[in-house]
């Protein structure tokens, strides 16, 4: 989906977003677990985790990807055609 010159930047961006998402998820579920443990229902964290997983699966099912036989149009090709 990216040209050769943009590939390293794209991979670095994906890694950064992945690390932010991991930290946010650990913080959120740590907070949820702490609150549910105070009430004596720490097992309910599993249900919250399952709900987030189902929502994530729904988002992925609704996302669209380029067709398998599509080709990449880079900036050089786009400017020469105009």
Q: Which helices and strands appear, and what pairs or packs with what?
A:
Layout: H1 7-39, H2 45-62, H3 75-81
Keywords: Membrane, Transmembrane, Transmembrane helix
Transmembrane segments: 20-37, 44-65
Describe the structure.
- The chain is mainly α.
- It has one domain (4-63).
- Helices cover 71% and strands 0% of the residues.
- It has helices at 7-39, 45-62, 75-81.
- The model has no long low-confidence stretch (mean pLDDT 86).
- The chain crosses the membrane at residues 20-37, 44-65.
- Keywords: Membrane, Transmembrane, Transmembrane helix.
Features:
single chain; transmembrane helix; transmembrane; membrane; 82 residues; 71% helix; mainly alpha
Characterize the overall form: elongated
* Percent in strands: under 5%
- Biggest sheet overview: none
Number of DSSP-assigned strands: 0
Describe the structure in brief:
Helix content is 71%, strand content 0%. The model has no long low-confidence stretch (mean pLDDT 86). The protein is elongated, with a radius of gyration of 20 Å.
């Amino acid at each position: 989906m990216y040209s050769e010159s943009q590939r390293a930047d794209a991979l670095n961006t994906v890694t950064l977003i992945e690390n932010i998402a991991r930290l946010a998820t650990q913080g959120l579920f740590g907070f949820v677990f702490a609150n549910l443990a105070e009430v004596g229902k720490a097992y309910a964290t599993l249900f919250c985790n399952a709900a987030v997983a189902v929502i994530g699966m729904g988002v992925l099912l609704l996302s669209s990807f380029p067709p398998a036989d599509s080709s990449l149009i880079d900036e050089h090709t786009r400017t020469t055609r105009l």
